[in-house]
User: What shape does this take?
Amino acid sequence: MIKMAVLASGTGRTLLNFFDLYKSGRLQADPCVVIVDRQCGALDHAANYVNKIDVYRLKGSEDIFTVCRKHNIKLVALAGFLSKLEIPEDYVNRVMNIHPSLLPSFGGKGMYGHHVHQAVLDYGCKVSGCTVHFVDNEYDHGPIIGQVVIPAYAVDTPDILAKRVFEKECILYPDCVNDFANKRIRVKGRITF
Ligand code: GRF
Assistant: This one.
């Protein structure tokens, strides 16, 4: 079983999904370290989790990866984490993120939460989705690991579209984590296979 650190800044729904799947034996990475960069809902989920975990409040990349090394963390999963990271050499292709659009569309600085879904609807897109990717030193840019497409409707509100996307996120992200844990992801340049 590999050890995973989960980094969060928001409500912590993604973190909670990891906890639930791990408890029921469907996640092959142990979410044993949680790092937040601010006071947020994810802290409550971490406090209520039945397993013993280590929780940190940190912002800078150096401090974050020092903690990850100390705990022998093999995979870092960003779960709505809003601070920009600089990925050190030993964590290249070991940090994952999920973004609520089909990258490279609707990504980059400022594209998070409802801003993404509003932009998709304003553009008149007929599909949207979510993307899991390795994190590099540019926002929403690293090698794509998996994507799921869902329909977008003209009558959608950002909240309705977000809900439809999030349901798929809850399946895609753990699938990608399990692929990583089972060494099923290879990376060449920005191509994964
Ligand atoms: C989702 O939009 C996800 O795509 C993005 O963060 C949001 C989830 O945050 N990475 P949270 O888990 O509800 O805090």
Q: What stands out?
A: Residues 72 and 189 are 25 Å apart (CA to CA). The two ends are 22 Å apart (CA to CA). Residues 8, 10-14, 79-80, 98-100, 169 surround 5-O-phosphono-beta-D-ribofuranosylamine (CB under 6 Å).
